[in-house]
Specification:
Oligomer: heterodimer
Structural class of chain A: alpha/beta
CATH architecture of the largest domain in chain B: Alpha-Beta Complex
Helix content of chain B: 40-55%
Radius of gyration of chain B: 30 Å
CATH superfamily of the largest domain in chain B: Conserved hypothetical protein from pyrococcus furiosus pfu- 392566-001, ParB domain
Structural class of chain B: alpha+beta
Strand content of chain B: 5-15%
Distance between the termini of chain B: 89 Å
Number of helices of chain A: 13
Shape of chain A: globular
CATH class of the largest domain in chain B: Alpha Beta
Number of helices of chain B: 15
Number of strands of chain A: 20
Largest interface: A-B, 23 and 24 residues
CATH topology of the largest domain in chain B: Conserved hypothetical protein from pyrococcus furiosus pfu- 392566-001, ParB domain
Largest sheet of chain B: 4 strands, mixed
CATH class of chain A: Alpha Beta
């Protein structure tokens, strides 16, 4: 992956005083111009308004350092309406990412432009620790990769410096760093491994090449995963979104071949599957920003939650094919579905956790297995 | 008349300090009698008329005469610019009238943008502007205002959402084919539908417009038609116009003895079958299975939308308890009911 192509950094009001800001400024000193304020005052940026115009103005070349005023740890909104969710917690360390995947939900979901890093994260950690400690019997599965890529900006931000020691030794929590990048230098340099899951978002080579713009190749991602695994990290994989495209079976088979070549399946905590789905508003953004995209091809119908999904037997078939490929790799890869219905689990994977609580228990068991209590 | 002193305005309006119309003096503009043949009624700098037939105004002027005098302004070279009232003057010209009294705004010393706004306000409060005229107005205003002001002030003035993509659509409309602009101006094609058509090649969008026109599709149907056609076109790597010029579309329009709503229904059936073949086949299988059950009269079974949910719905129409009982009894005895299932599974599997 090439350098992060930043054109400017904006230190927004209230962010200057934070130590993370100063550390980042030291890392960024050089060719990237730094401004203070929201960027509107001197006209260096378009107005910091809501709702970027059909996602066109995502302004991924501006990095804003922001003191986020709200809660940084929140439950994943899930989707409800009979779809089984995993009970994940999102640690909101920033929004948007420098990659430009055509299907990215953030194009429609995020209504503020630019890459944003929340520089008050280190100061928020004691409060997060208090919340985790309040509920010691619960397993907190926490991730930073929902609203941004967990590692894409790590060389600049240095999240690993704060987060890895924070989770190390906690008996009731794990942190999942989800990424499509190979930016693992910071992780490898850290002495902390405990309670950290590094996971990669994978797809077929066809989709990775055509739709995951600015992301490293699948082979680079998987080699980065192999390196992390070798260095003692627990790893995971996410096939999300699964896209039905010409030759999709062979395509996903090729990705599994790569996994087989580089990864020891025994050390994989879980593999999730999620068929392509989108909020109706995302369609026009994709058509506008990525005119050649194939992710909207195929038969989509409105789901009960209002999102467009592949017609049920189509996605059931896709899950079935991936299940076959993955269980041929390892009989128990910790396979689960993201936001799917009970009957789709049954038909696609041959079993169902029955409910969101059931799925959470399944994933908690995986955590206990891969991070055994001393 | 001197330009009004904003600071001495006895009726200051603090909510609209930048309103240019407040610069008018309290005295009425001067009335002048102008020769119509001396006025440019086609391309004046303030002209904001497009796609308007003169007939309704002609009938009105014939009946009651000119009620509001056109607004004019003397240009730098001494010639007259019409600020507002192009249509009225065109009607008078067509009626053979040689001169017309007009209100001269020149003594107000108004800036060009203020004249433009005067004309716009006059039109907005009387006849309104069609979509093409709104685009023309935005184009004219963009010569005086920056993008942010145009979005904030100009679009609000025209009753449009103050959003950049909307402005882009109106700008694109200005570049569109004359025929397409006429359809939009006449209100037969929505701006939302135009927004979908805008990136298409000219022959493709004109072909789609032709269908919309011929089938008189309402705004919702227009949007659906274009969106599904676009999906098929991308997936099949065929131009939309090319698709519409091939079977089964081609013969649909020519079909005789079929009225427009029937043709519209048929068009959407074809589009849906092409776009969602598996779902369409499932729905047909389901209908066939239901029909083969021989359900009692007044009883209907409806599948979940798109088969996404799991719950089917039973509808029973009845007049009284006795009839309900009869229908439920007959339904209970209906053979094959237990085998009812989702269409992609063999009958009886899920019972």
């Amino acid at each position: 992956m090439s350098r992060i192509p930043l054109q400017r950094v904006l230190v927004e009001e209230g962010a200057r005083a934070y130590p993370l800001t100063r550390r980042m400024m030291r890392r960024l000193s050089g060719p990237v111009p730094v401004f203070e304020g929201s960027g509107e005052e001197d006209g260096c940026l378009r107005k910091n308004t809501r709702a970027p115009s059909l996602g066109r103005g995502m302004d991924k070349k501006t990095l804003r350092l922001v003191a986020f005023p709200g809660e940084l740890l929140k439950p994943c909104p899930g989707t409800g309406e009979g779809y089984i969710c995993c009970g994940y917690q999102i640690l909101n360390v920033g929004t948007n990412c420098p990659l430009d995947c055509s299907y990215c939900i953030l194009q429609a979901y995020m209504n503020l432009p630019s890459l944003r890093v929340f520089v008050n994260l280190p100061e928020a950690l004691p409060e997060i620790a208090r919340r985790l400690d309040e509920d010691p019997s619960r397993i907190w599965r926490i991730g930073t990769g929902e609203f941004t890529d967990s590692l894409a900006l790590d060389p600049i931000v240095g999240w690993h410096e704060w987060l890895l020691p924070f989770f190390d030794g906690r008996k009731n929590a794990v942190l999942e760093l989800k990424t499509k990048t190979d930016r693992i230098r910071g992780l490898l340099a850290s002495p902390h491994r405990d309670r950290i899951i590094v996971s990669w978002s994978l797809n077929s080579p066809w989709i990775a090449t055509r739709e995951e713009h600015k992301a490293p190749t699948l082979e680079l991602r998987i080699r980065a995963a192999a390196r992390c695994q070798k260095e003692g990290f627990v790893i995971g994989f996410h096939f999300d979104p699964l896209v039905r495209h010409p030759g999709w079976r062979e395509g996903y088979q090729r990705t599994l071949d790569l996994l087989d070549r580089y990864i020891a399946p025994k050390g994989v905590i879980w593999v999730s599957l999620g068929a392509m789905r989108y909020m109706p508003g995302l369609k026009r953004v994709i058509r506008t920003r990525h005119p050649g995209s194939a992710v909207l091809d195929g038969e989509f119908t409105p789901g009960l939650d209002g999102k467009m999904r592949y017609f049920k037997p189509i996605r059931t078939e896709m899950y079935g094919v991936l299940r076959e490929l993955l269980t041929a790799w390892h009989p128990n890869p910790g396979l689960y579905l993201c936001m799917e219905r009970d009957e789709v689990w049954e038909q696609g994977l041959g079993w169902s956790p029955g409910s969101s609580e059931g799925l959470a228990a399944f994933l908690d068991d995986r955590v206990k297995k891969l991070f055994p209590a001393e | 008349m001197a330009k009004a002193d904003r600071n001495n305005d006895p009726f200051p309006d603090s909510t609209a300090p930048s309103n240019p119309l407040r610069s008018f003096s309290k005295e009425p503009p001067v009335r002048v009698e102008l020769k119509i043949c001396d006025l440019d009624l086609e391309n004046g700098p303030f002209c904001a008329s497009f796609g308007r037939g003169l007939d309704p105004l002609l009938a009105s002027i014939r009946r009651v005469g000119i009620l509001n005098l056109p607004l004019v302004h003397r240009g730098a070279r001494g010639d007259w610019d019409v600020v507002c009232g192009f249509q009225r003057l065109r009607v008078l010209r067509s009626l053979g009238v040689e001169t017309c009294p007009c209100m001269d705004l020149s003594p107000e010393n108004l800036e060009p943008v203020e004249l433009l706004l005067a004309g716009l306000h006059d039109n907005l409060t009387t006849r309104g502007l069609n979509e093409v005229e709104k685009g023309m107005a935005l184009e004219r205003l963009s010569a005086f205002w920056d993008e942010a002001t145009l979005i904030r002030e100009g679009m609000a003035l025209l009753g449009l959402p103050s959003r950049a993509p909307v402005l882009e659509s109106y700008r694109a409309l200005g570049e569109a084919e004359e025929a397409l602009r006429e359809i939009v101006a006449a209100g037969r094609l929505s701006m939302k539908a135009f927004g979908l058509l805008e990136p298409w090649n000219s022959p493709d969008r004109m072909e789609a417009c032709d269908w919309i026109n011929k089938l008189n599709l309402n705004f919702n149907k227009q949007y659906q038609f274009i969106e599904i056609l676009e999906d098929i076109s991308i997936e099949e790597s065929r131009a939309p116009g090319d698709l519409l010029q091939s079977e089964p579309f081609l013969s649909l329009l020519a079909e005789e003895g079929v009225n427009r709503p029937q043709k519209t229904a048929r068009l959407f059936e074809i589009l849906r079958r092409r776009r969602l073949p598996t779902l369409d086949a499932a729905e047909r299988t389901f209908r066939r299975r239901i029909s083969s059950l021989g359900l009692p009269k007044g009883v209907r079974i409806v599948h979940p939308p798109g088969f996404e949910g799991t719950d089917f719905r039973l509808e029973v129409v009845f007049r009284n308890g006795r009839e309900l009982r009869e229908r439920v009894d007959t339904l209970y005895r209906t053979p094959g009911l237990k085998t009812l299932n989702v269409p992609w599974e063999a009958e009886g599997e899920g019972a």
